[in-house]
Amino acid sequence: MKPLSIALISRDNGVGLTADMNLLEGMLTEAGHGVRRVEWTDHAMPHVDVGIFLELWSPRLARYARKTVGVFNLEWFQSSWTRDLGRLNQLWAKSVESHAIYSQRLRLKTSTLTGFLSRDLNDPSVPRQATALHLRGHSDFKNTNEVIEAWRT
User: Fold this and answer.
1) For a FRET experiment, which of 52, 55, 125, 143 has its CA 20 to 30 Å from that of 68?
2) For residue 88, which of 106, 104, 66, 73 has the smallest C-alpha distance?
3) How far apart are CA 132 and CA 129, in angstroms?
4) Side by side, which strands form the sheet with 5-10?
5) Tens digit of pLDDT at every position of the chain (153 positions)
6) How far apart are CA 63 and CA 73, in angstroms?
7) Sign of the C-alpha dihedral computed for residues 138, 111, 5 and 51 taken in this order
8) Helix ranges (DSSP H) in the chain
């Protein structure tokens, strides 16, 4: 397969979005693709084969990508983005709930349930216990009741 030019379009915020970009950039680079990071507020970018929009959507940058992918977090999703989502070639849903919203409520045929990936920080020298910390923050989309119920069973 020919290597692709890929733009990761987001905000390099030093925390979650940066971690997402680092993970994707590492995987895509290891697979032989050329990856560049683009600030989502930029007005232009070099033309690429694939533009991956992480959490943030910019219709003005979409025109610079031959194919577009959206990877959005429901708690930060702006309703104003809905009118442009048909321009995405693929919409990757990190959760069953987001996939249901995209495919059933918004009737988008491009939604695919992908799940999500995180860095593996498992240090075998650290003793493990069955505990959890669930941070809801200001989001109603964290399924707190389902998390509690899962830990009860």
Assistant:
1) 143
2) 66
3) 9
4) 34-39, 5-10, 48-54, 65-71, 90-93, 111-113
5) 799 999 999 998 888 888 889 999 999 999 999 999 999 999 999 999 999 999 999 999 999 999 999 998 877 777 777 788 788 899 888 888 888 888 887 777 778 888 776 666 677 887 877 777 777 766 777 778 888 888 787
6) 22
7) negative
8) 16-30, 59-62, 96-100, 144-152
Q: Are 62 and 51 in contact (CB under 8 A)?
A: yes
Which residues neighbour 35 within 8 Å (Cβ) at sequence distance 6 or greater? 6, 7, 8, 24, 25, 28, 29
Copy the structure tokens of residue 21: 């970009």
8 A C-beta contact, residue 40 and residue 61: yes
Structure tokens at 143: 């399924």
